[in-house]
Specification:
Keywords: Cell shape, Cell wall biogenesis/degradation, Glutamine amidotransferase, Hydrolase, Ligase, Peptidoglycan synthesis. Its EC number is 6.3.5.13, 3.5.1.2. This is Lipid II isoglutaminyl synthase (glutamine-hydrolyzing) subunit GatD. Forms a heterodimer with MurT. The protein is α/β, with parallel strands linked by helices. The protein has one domain: Class I glutamine amidotransferase (GATase) domain (Rossmann fold), CATH 3.40.50.880. The chain is 29% helix and 35% strand. The protein is built from seven helices and 14 strands. Strands 1, 2, 3, 4, 5, 6, 7, 8, 9, 10, 11, 12, 13 and 14 form a 14-stranded mixed β-sheet that branches. Strand 7 and strand 8 form a beta hairpin. It is globular and about 50 Å long.
């Protein structure tokens, strides 16, 4: 029987924005589909299992990013190989930033990244806060953003979502009339990086299924990921509808630091 292995890196340090909820969303969908799974929570200095299907790296402040930096850098080859081989990965906020080529802080410090994502990150004085909606190939991704960073992509094809509401993480080429376009989410193979919190997966069944479908296909397992998930889908649909209604009302999207 196929067993899917999930590994969450540094949940005690990079897990401040509901990142455990992303892991639980993956677990719940696999359980409903009657797929055997195991989850490992990996702290600094602990070994990853020999086989990993899904890596989850959560969000945390700059202090936490510094705390895990050396350990994550030591795993760089393993993580790059995982992504290059089609393994699934979800990284959020600070965890996503560490997968870039590097992060520049407000005081000019450079924190080198793993280079899994061909992009750089600059911390900014403007904090982007509020609901966000991004249109992607698999439908709308909805959630909450709260970050003070700006991504610069080496190739705009790396961008996965176009912002319909909110601020997003990076600029995309402007429209013909000069109207600015913002992007949110990056994708390389089956690796996804985002600033969307909430956590993102429970709110977005389409994204959760996209990750798990890729994992099961890589394992050669044909799984119906919709079976038994009606209640989860209904809860997600209700929350998504409420958020889409709220974005048409009063709100805020930036805080000046």
């Amino acid at each position: 029987m196929t067993r899917i292995t999930i590994a969450q890196l540094y949940p005690d340090l990079l897990g401040v924005t509901g990142d455990r909820g992303n892991v639980r969303a993956l677990e719940a969908r696999l359980e409903l589909a009657d797929v055997n799974r195991v989850t490992h929570r990996i702290a600094v200095g602990e070994e990853l299992p020999d086989e990993v299907d899904i890596l989850v790296i959560g969000n945390g402040p700059l202090s936490a990013m510094r705390a895990v930096h050396a350990d994550l850098t030591a795993r760089a080859d393993r993580i790059r190989s995982h992504v290059e081989d089609g393994g699934a990965l979800l990284a959020v906020g600070g965890g996503a930033e560490l997968l870039s080529r590097g992060v520049t802080t407000l005081d000019g410090e450079r924190l080198d990244g793993l280079g899994v994502l061909d992009a750089t990150v600059a911390r900014t004085r403007t904090r982007k806060v509020g609901y966000i909606i991004a249109d992607t190939e698999i439908g709308r991704v909805i959630g909450f953003e709260d970050h003070a960073s700006e991504w610069t992509l080496a190739d705009h094809a790396l961008g996965y979502g176009r912002v319909a509401f909110g601020q997003g993480g990076f600029a995309l080429p402007a429209e013909a009339d000069g109207h600015p376009v913002r992007g949110e989410m990056l994708r390389v193979g089956n690796a996804f990086a985002t600033t969307i919190q909430g956590p993102v997966l429970p709110l977005n069944p389409g994204l959760t299924r996209e990750i798990l479908t890729a994992v099961c296909a890589r394992r050669g397992t044909d799984v119906d990921l919709t079976a038994g998930a009606e209640t989860l889908d209904a809860y997600a649909a209700g929350a998504r509808t409420a958020i889409e209604a709220l974005v048409h009302g009063k709100g805020f999207n930036t805080i000046q630091l």
